[in-house]
Design a protein that fits this description.
alpha+beta, 21% strand, globular, 16 strands, 10 helices, 2 domains, 6-stranded antiparallel β-sheet
Length: 392
């Protein structure tokens, strides 16, 4: 299944409409969260979270929305609040399973987003059964998109083919708005890969070193962008940032500072995402079996000397991208046990010796083999025994 994400080209009126929809979804989500947690205090009521949320949804539609002070809610599509309850139900389901933490309230500072979808269609001929496209929106080729329940919006980047979708998610990053939707299409994976198996050693100084000799680096623009962000924050350290508890409003210059900071953070995230996507796509195209080490990311971040470099190189994101691209490119991602001494083992004679983190060249004390530390580790990952390997 494919997903398409495009930036919207909005004017001031359309931006206000998007912010209103996002605020409506945030209000409903927090409303349901408060009532659900409050309902747990009634020990006589025995019901699951799903049934409680269904009852809360009826209270919201039949009582809360009918109040005069909440008349503004009728200006927005009904699918906005319906998707808010769906998201809240999924959040509690993940929390019950232990997959995620307890759901938190939505905040403006963490970005705006909302989901809308087409609920019903018009039959082509009265009495005929519904077609697969009854509840779908047809998206024509070009720089415009029709969002169900809203209007037609302009896109900054064109869509090159005719497609259709039912659900659309609108999100904000800094001061830019995006729309994303999925397509019911499957990508045919390549039949032949140039390399059968490859080992990839993720490192601090070099983003990825492969057993075939290729390397991937995080671009220097990331460091420059982070330096610019640090200078921006230091120069504006005296700004009155506002405090809701003390009822202090943020100054206009502080709001400008917020926008600049959001843009710079978004730039850093985009550079990292672009680098990791290109790296994982290149690896998936050229190798059938990809072996990486099962790293303890939380433990590595706990070391203050490595925390910044590990966070900047996005180790877990690389693993996640390689894993979901298995279906797209017909690859198999394997994890080598984290206790396997790939950096301390000689790739020629399998001699194991102690090495410091500062030692960048592997010099075998037994066979006198000399090789770059990361290249030696990548070769060991490729040739690791099957007892130390598991599927990602």
């Amino acid at each position: 299944m494919f997903a398409i994400k495009r930036e919207l080209k909005l004017n001031n009126v359309e931006t206000s409409l998007m912010r209103g929809n996002a605020g409506f979804k945030r209000w409903v989500y927090n409303f349901g969260l408060d009532l659900l947690t409050a309902s747990w205090s009634f020990e006589d009521v025995l019901a699951s979270d799903s049934k409680r949320l269904n009852a809360i949804k009826k209270v919201f539609t039949q009582i809360t929305m009918q109040k005069p002070e909440h008349a503004w809610m009728k200006l927005y599509p009904s699918t906005v609040y319906q998707s808010a309850f769906i998201d809240l139900k999924d959040a509690f389901s993940r929390w019950r399973k232990g997959v995620s933490e307890f759901p938190k309230k939505k905040s403006k500072k963490k970005g705006d987003s909302f989901t809308i979808y087409k609920t019903a269609g018009i039959y082509p001929v009265k009495g005929e059964p519904a077609t697969p496209f009854t509840n779908r929106v047809v998206i024509n080729e070009g720089k415009q998109i029709k969002l169900p329940g809203l209007k037609t919006f302009r896109l900054k980047e064109r869509i090159n083919f005719i497609c259709s979708s039912q659900t659309f998610t609108v999100s904000r990053t800094a001061d830019k708005w995006f729309v994303s939707f999925t397509l019911d299409a499957e990508k045919l994976p390549p039949i032949i890969h140039p390399i059968e198996k490859i080992g990839v050693d993720l490192g601090v100084k070099v983003l990825g070193t492969c057993s075939d000799g290729s390397k991937y680096d995080m671009p220097a623009s990331t460091t420059r962008a982070k330096t610019k962000l640090s200078k921006l924050q230091w120069r504006n350290r005296q700004k009155i940032l506002g405090n809701k508890k003390l009822k202090i409003r943020a100054s206009k210059n502080a709001l400008k500072f917020y926008r600049k900071t959001q843009r710079q953070n978004a730039r850093i995230a985009n550079i990292r995402q672009d680098t990791t996507q290109k790296m994982t796509t290149d690896l998936s195209r050229k190798s059938c079996i990809i072996r990486i080490e099962d790293l303890n990311i939380l433990g590595m971040i706990g070391l203050h000397k490595l925390a910044r470099a590990v966070s900047n190189n996005c180790f877990y994101e690389i693993r996640r991208q390689l894993t979901y691209k298995q279906a797209h490119y017909g690859t198999t991602v394997e994890l080598v046990d984290r206790w396997y001494p790939s950096s301390k083992t000689c790739s020629k004679c399998n001699h194991i010796q102690d090495m410091k983190l500062s030692d960048r060249i592997f010099n075998c004390q037994k066979c006198k083999h000399i090789q770059d530390r990361d290249e030696n580790a990548a070769t060991n990952l490729e040739n690791a025994p099957n007892s130390k390997v598991r599927l990602a």
